[in-house]
Amino acid sequence: MSMAKQDTDTVRGLRGLEDSSSSVRLRAALAVGTAPDPRFIGKLIERCAIEPEFHVREMLTWALTRHPASMTVPGLVDELRSERAQARSQALHTLSKIGDRQAWPAITRALLADADDEVARSAWRAAVVLVPDGEEAGLAGVLMTQLGRGERETRLSLSRALIALGEVIMPILRAAMTDADPRVRAHAIATERLSRDPDAGFEFAVEEAKRVVALGPAGQEE
């Protein structure tokens, strides 16, 4: 392929990623992922920060995962300092899909406690994927500070992240089950129930937790 043809295809691809039609943007991202080209990495990351359509964002993330991590991770880590919540959230989501643990130092306590629920949820998922062996307990301790936060989806995301860390969460989780804040207690109890019986579902675990909190210590199972 001639250099001129490559340049023309690149310009067309970059324009496609910015097209007003979501279907065109989707096809452009698919094309970039199918034939990875480092010249698109910056635009893919830039587009992740502002793309309004979920399915297009997912394709942008997929396209980024098709490129070498050494080329994508630095740019994604830079996005974690963005003032735009979507930029932080999508960068975290993409880092979790890439799974390169060299990104771990960028998953800060500030991101794990981000004021934006979507950013925090993405940070929890990324942290569980990227945490180095032996540092799970420290991560669990930070995640526990978020118990009781948000609505159902946020609480479920946190429970799943904690459970994914394994048995290391249990001592801290049991302590949280006696927290002075009833929301923290209920969330901790629901998480413990869900860890023991994943098939029961989160709603069942939450209802059980509410019952235990309402009954007080007498409602705790041995």
UniProtKB/TrEMBL annotation:
<dbReference type="InterPro" id="IPR011989">
    <property type="entry name" value="ARM-like"/>
</dbReference>
<dbReference type="InterPro" id="IPR016024">
    <property type="entry name" value="ARM-type_fold"/>
</dbReference>
<dbReference type="Pfam" id="PF13646">
    <property type="entry name" value="HEAT_2"/>
</dbReference>
<protein>
    <submittedName>
        <fullName>HEAT repeat domain-containing protein</fullName>
    </submittedName>
</protein>
